Amino acid sequence: xxxxxxxNPLEPDLEVIKQAAKILLEGGVVAFPTETVYGLGAxxxxxxxxxKVFWAKKRPPDNPLIIHISxxxxxxxxxxxxxxEAYRLIRVLWPGPLTLILRxxxxxxxxxxxxxxxxxxxxxxxxxxxxxxxxxxxxxxAPSANIAGRPSPTTAEHVIRDLQGRIDAVIDAGETIYGxxxxxxxxxxxPPVLMRPGAYPVEEIEKILGTKIEIPDFARGLTEANTALxxxxxxxxxxxxxxxxxxxxxxxxxxxIINAVKELSMKYAENENKKVCIVASSETISMYEFMSxxxxxxxxGSRNNLFEIARNxxxxxxxxxxxxxxxxIIEGVEEKGLGLTIMNRLRKAAKLKIRV
Length: 356
Ligand code: TXA
Ligand code: MG
Known about the structure:
The chain is an alpha/beta fold. It has ten helices and 16 strands. The chain has helices spanning 14-25, 47-57, 72-78, 84-93, 127-136, 156-163, 202-209, 254-271, 306-322, 338-349, and strands spanning 3-6, 30-33, 38-43, 66-68, 79-80, 98-104, 118-122, 140-141, 169-172, 183-186, 193-196, 244-248, 276-280, 295-299, 327-331, 352-355. The strands form two sheets. Strands 1, 2, 3, 4, 5, 6, 7, 8, 9, 10 and 11 form an eleven-stranded mixed sheet that branches. The longest helix is centred in the C-terminal third of the chain and has 18 residues, at 254-271. It is globular. The N and C termini lie far apart (48 Å).
């Protein structure tokens, strides 16, 4: 049985927070909202509870978790030898969707870090997440609260859909804010390395640091990474059950993408008699309407507001399965700012990538 605890996101109900804290202190696992996506939490120092997180998500044991803290003193309980560059980012960006790779404190179980001597740490900005960690006084280890490989959950309904009966409770505080996960920076490397683009654009982080951040191909979702360096990157991610085709272009001329999407969707709908879902932007959606009765068009948001597309991304991917499409075709966006984050997720989610 999974208990659903409901609260207002901005003014967390103290009774709800206390009930969730009690379950965690007794060694249970609880899903809770953060400003990015819902996380599935366990007390970081309780190995039995942490192993329940891996079990509930069906997550491979070498894919480490992120540690969530609510104060700087908690940071010292999970990390050691923190470099000055880290504090420069922490001062400006915490609480918020930035995760830092730091040296592991020996008391953090290796189960949490997938055997690594580094830890991933962040201070979330969601009032519910912060109240819960404060109430516990102990950091929470939490990956996203989805079955491994599925799109991350941005609502409690998504969590329930994936994890009903596999976790003790979920705190339902409505939709998350960013809708994509935190940006992960390996601040121990020189220059720092972007491990995963996320809700904070990497360009903003470079401005604060005053240095360039290395963007490896795996952070763009283009290649598999060296697993020792970037655990988690080797696994299939964010995928709806519906096979997804991504059509991307390095040209700013949208007509190339539009023509390719039109051609592909007509081929599947008319020649192969399939139900096709096209995921388009506000700017291009009118190009695909009324092509065929077998084509269903969804709007993911405006290309001029990538925050909107990022926020709608996982919900839209999940909705493809509910619409029972045979195949889905999605347009790529420019790889700048949040566009890098969106393209990383889409390239990992797609079965087939087409460049035009
Ligand atoms: O926004 C977020 O980051 C959300 C919310 C719940 O906080 N969490 C999240 O966790 O996205 P998860 O487990 O889905 O992604 C954590 C990723 C891992 O896949 C891994 O790539 C990276 O963090 N990671 C964790 N520890 C690491 C380490 N020591 N070195 C390198 N990467 C690490
Ligand atoms: Mg995840």
